[in-house]
Structures are given as C-alpha cells and as structure tokens.
Amino acid sequence: MTLTQESTLVTAADVSAAAARIAPFLRATPLLPLPGERLWIKPENRQPTGSFKVRGAMNAVGVLAERGAGHVIAQSSGNHAQAVAYAAARRGLRATVVLPDTAPELKVAGARRLGADVVITPPALREDTCVALAERLGAALIRSDAFDVIAGHGGVGSDIADEMAGPVTILVPVCNGGLLAGVAVAAKSVNPAITVIGVEPELAADGAASFRSGRRTAWPVQETYRTSADGLRAPVLGALAWEHIRRYVDDMLTVSEEGIAAAAGLLWAELGERAEPSGAVTTAAYLAHGPSLPPGPVVAVLTGGNVGGSPLQAAGQQVGAPEALQHQDQDDQRDDGDGRSRDDQ
C-alpha cells in the first residue's frame, strides 16, 4: 500500500469526530495507579463486550449506518467480532462475523449472544472466507485496521493525553496495529512530547520486526499462533496501520509468555482487573523493560478482559507468582472501586 498524501491518514479531527459519534455507547475508563510504581493502567476491559474494540467498531458501524448500510461483516480472533456484533445491534444492522476454529469459546459465544451470525473457519482461511461472504451477502466489510476503526480507537490516546500532564509513555498492545496507530496519532496531537510504544509477544513479533527493518514483515501463522495472547496473533501489520506506526510510534517492545502470565496475575491481585493475555502484555512490558523506559509516568493500556477463570490462579500455575502477588489473598473479593466485584467483569 502506498500513500501519497498525508490526508489519507487519520487526523486529530477524525478522532474527535469519532469520539462524538461513539460517546453514548462507551463507558468512561479511568487511569488506575499500580501501588508503589510509576505505572498507570487504562482499563479498556471495562468497555461493553469486555475490550477496547468497541470504540473502533462502534465508529465504523456508525459511519456505515449513516450511509445506509444494512449488513456488516468482519473477521476476527474474537474481540473485534464481539464489538462489531454489539455495534450492529445498537445501530439496528445485521452482523456476520468470521472466527478461527481456535477462538476461545467465550468470545464465540459472546458474538452469538450479541446477535451476530457466526462462521467458523481454519485460521489461515479467515480473510478469504470473510471477503467471499461479504461479496455474496452484499455486506460492508469492517477490517480491524480500517480508517474509521483507527479513528475510533484514537480516543484511548486522547483520554490519556488529556488526563496526564507533561511527558508520559504509553504502552499499547499490537495485533494488526489499528489501536497503536490511533493512540499514537491522537496522543501526539495533544502533546507531541508523549512517547508511544507498541508491545507484542516474543512469539508473535512481526510488528517489532517491521519496525526494526522499516518494512512490513509477515510471520507464518503457525508461528504467531504459538502465543497465549490470542488477540495478538495477526501475522502482519495492517497496511494503513503501518503507515501511521512508522510515522508516529517511537519504539516496539516484546515480552515473554511467562511475563504475560505474571502480569495478568499482578493486575488481578493488585487492582482486581481481569486481563486476558493480549491485554496484559503492556504491564508485562513495564515489568520487563521498566528501567529502560523514559522517565516519568507510564500508562499501560489494558485492552481486554475476556478470559475465564482466575488470572491470578493461571499466573501462579504457569510461572509462580511474583513478589507483588505473594502477600495477596487469592480469595479476596473486594470491589474494584466502582461497585463491581472481580467476577462482574
């Protein structure tokens, strides 16, 4: 993909327009300080459908509804599918979603519960199946790094930049790069001194490889599917997302599977926040790379909490609880501070 004009990229004005369009459908997410650290958590797991994806999907579906579309379709590892299903239901549109046969049942069931027609396919056939169905059904295809999706996601960056004065570092999970692109554009439009860093699992680091080489680099699906972070298994950055990333993003980091599990446990123990592996990678990056990050506050975007069971228990089983977890009562059921118990997420 070659872009010859800056106007083809998402702008701060696009992010603002998206924020106004989707505001009635979102929940405000605060910044939560991690005790004893310079780390703050942006809990997008509190959004409807349990992930940040509702921001971009709600904007894209809203734009299509305004243009008269009646049927939308998307392919996803799970969270984008649920978000599109939710957005379509709120706007009175029909939704079809294509998911891989490796998708967690929690996410498949969620998409169905929200009213979408669900199609299951092998991971390598997701895109082709989705495109073919879009043509056959006459449905509008919503890619997870589409222009309007990126603009909707940008609100995460605007929120952080508006709330945190001065230099701050924002850590963002990376799948196909739509969230990272939106956060970078939006945050830096408010405060150019903000540092934006993408985070990937070591086992699915195609984005980091692209960032280092300066070229979009694809990894084989059989490699990216090794990570437990099922929402970050895309084998290559989206073309439009990449154009934003190479202009606005400052760095890319990777984290281990053990680090991801430990971070999920820490978020559960210290803050009562349920984090799926894909959402825990940013906290894992802070724990692994904190001393090398720029001075000042760090914000980790917790992108999703669609995971069953106890993240604390899972972390302890996989890697052994870090010191921060050892003093926690695993049966503690205190509120999150907004009236929700841990099991309400």
Automatic annotation (TrEMBL):
Any one biological process term the GO annotation gives: D-serine biosynthetic process
Domain Tryptophan synthase beta chain-like PALP: 24-304
Name of the protein in its database record: Threonine dehydratase
The keyword Hydrolase appears for this protein: no
Keywords for this protein: Pyridoxal phosphate
Source domain of life: Bacteria
Coiled coil: none
Cofactor(s) for this UniProt protein: pyridoxal 5'-phosphate
Keyword ATP-binding (UniProt): no
Stored Pfam families: PALP
UniProt lineage: Bacteria, Bacillati, Actinomycetota, Actinomycetes, Streptosporangiales
Biased composition (Basic and acidic residues): 326-345
Region feature Disordered, mapped onto this chain: 309-345
Any one GO MF annotation of this record: serine racemase activity
